[in-house]
Fold this protein.
Amino acid sequence: MDETSEVLRLTKINKSFPGVKALTDIHFSLQKGEVHALVGENGAGKSTLMKILSGAYTKDSGNIEFEGRNVEITSPKFSEELGIATIYQELNLIRRITIAENVFLGRYPKKGGLIQWNKMNEDAKALFESFGIQIDVKQQLRSISLAQQQIVEIIKAVSMNAKVVIMDEPTSSLTTRETEILFRIIRELKARGTAVIFITHRLDEIYRICDRMTIMRDGCYVGTRQVKDITKGEMIAMMIGRELTQQYPVRNVELGDIVLEARNLDDGGYRVKNVSFSVRAGEVLGFAGLVGAGRTETMRLIFGADKKAGGQILIDGKEVRINHPRNAIAHKIGFVTENRKEEGLFLRSTVRVNTVMAALGKIMRLRWFFDFEKEKEIAKDYVKKLNTVTPSVNQKVMFLSGGNQQKVVLAKWLFSDSRIVIFDEPTRGIDVGAKREIYEIINQLAAEGKVILVVSSEMEEIMGISDRILVMHEGEISGELKKEEFSQNLITEFAVGGK
Amino acid sequence: MEKKGISSQIFKIANNMGAWLIILLVGIVLTAATDTFLTYDNIINVLRQSCVVAITAMGASFVVLGGEIDLSTGMAATFAGCNTALLMTKMNMPIFPAILISVFVGCICGTAAGLIVTYLKIPSFMGTLGIQYVIQGMILITTNSMPITGLPEQFLALGRGYVLGWLPIPIIIMAIFFLVGTIALRYTVFGRSVMAVGENAEAAKLSGLNVNLTRIAMFTVCGFCCAFAGIVQASRMSSGQPGSGTDLSMQALAAVYIGGTFKGSMLNTLAGALAWSFVNNGLNLLGVNAYWQKVALGIIIIFAVALDILRARLSTAKH
């Protein structure tokens, strides 16, 4: 490899967060005019590494060489000045100003202190045309599609003379056609000598657009390969290659009758397509897949949080109508959501208020009035049962740790008598000890004959706690695995769209 | 250590008292500075003056706790006052049905605001601003912008009468409202739902609460309170005054914020409304020019709310 064409070289990068070693001795090198894929499971450390490059985090140790000289990236501004531009999944653009203004934000062409609007619009137009894109740069950003907005962001990066462009899952929200346009622009960038770091979960795309790839796992560097020399199987093996550890308590439950059945669930062609499955009493059914595969959306349909466009839900063999979470709760379904702070909890309210929230009817006296004594007793009871660490039931939940907050959410659904409990990323943001406790609670619920649905992006977790796993890919169930068939290779294969 | 214990005790008491503390301070200062403040006549007078604002503010409290805002409360009150007056004078309707119809119309005004905010998804600030102008227009159309006088004697008792010769009827009405309001907020599903929706509407929905119905209902309750306040107002002034409600919406909101109702008790709203009246009264007794009074009141609002934010931050930081 030609040394002079190397634009970026990272050696032995380390980064820790309180209690977590996020990156260990990471190596990475990037050539001029190269498209370099960065792959790994969720939580492998890709984002952390890119945040170090973009200046959002600073590394603990290691060396960054940019165009042959050592640099310390201390701030996003410095990274930008070096010529590193990051295109995030959530775009950093302003919706209510024009495309041209977005491109030149903060560096409007000025004369005598006044903005030269004509020059700015013409410059912007010329920039887009140099990539073969015809677009009215005077329209507001919000009037164009998400894919087009992403292109605006890339053009903005180019106009700032970016030498390295980082794209974090740029295609996750694009249609096939939009992806084509994006790829065309990436090829154009490549031709100009700009290097692109391309983070993606879609292995097919790596073959289509990337030259080399670097694989990360658990915050460690696994290797760098020429894309043309590696098979998909080898890629997956490098991504996941590790043994399952024994942090999952053993469960021994006789499965009962089918309790919940979903038939052809559909949300109108957005994220959920024709999803059918059934679960038995005492069974833990896992949903695996990539972020954005439609797992959370499926759960929201079952729970009535979003509108169904089609399909049926059957409980104990009878069709039930669930159009609102209220109906779901009446049918004894509980939903431990992915974002407990946004969707699960009332942070400024107390543990006791949160505990009874889904079953207010159960603490009434004289039909209309709350019985606060009862509320307190119930809350205390669940604190004890779930081993929640809180000074009292009158503590506001915002002051509890992640694991204890999760237990409060759980208490809410247990108190509402749920017999079908949906867990969406049940251990996200929870430390290892509390994780194990959550798994034990899941086991206990299964032992009581409840039905458990678990959505998890952590491969180990889903294999560790499920009796059976359904894998989703782009809104559809792409595979089903029985316990004895569980393997990371198989799941990953299904998750990226089959063999 | 000892010192810290005492100061944290004081902090805790002050924290719980909220706007009652303002009333206490104003009371101490004025008792010392004037000999007219601490008299039966003065205190009763201040309480009586607070009734209209307090009842309106109670309605506004539900809306504010539910995470929205209502700028049309004053107009809704005025509308109800004028409607009652019109029905009794122009249409010779007996008192009771006239009040009933006006209160009903007030509820409809509130419900309309609720429907607009809930289903058209317009921010409540703009939605209720629009409603306010619609109601103002209706008032001007129905009254032709003229005060409606000649109200029946019995009706005037509502705002001016006494029970047992010493307890003003409007104060009794205010007390009943706050008793019911406190119970509704604290002990019923409605109150709990309002607080839940105000804090986190998504979590409320996913906990099975009826978010839309709660939003509409809180605006309806607000309309009900406003209408009642407006009727008391009309009775106090012996007339339906088309121009009387312009400032009331703002005073009601001020009472909610000064009172620190976010702590979750309706009595804080009462404290906010009373604090406002007592400060007003104090400035009067001290002979402060009416124009300067406005300046002073404005500053007090800012200080009271700033203090409340500081207080909230301190009580959070303590953990």
In short: Chain B touches chain A at residues 183, 186-189, 192, 195-196, 199-200, 202-210, 319 (CB under 8 Å). Chain B has a mean pLDDT of 90. Chain B is about 80% helix and 0% strand.
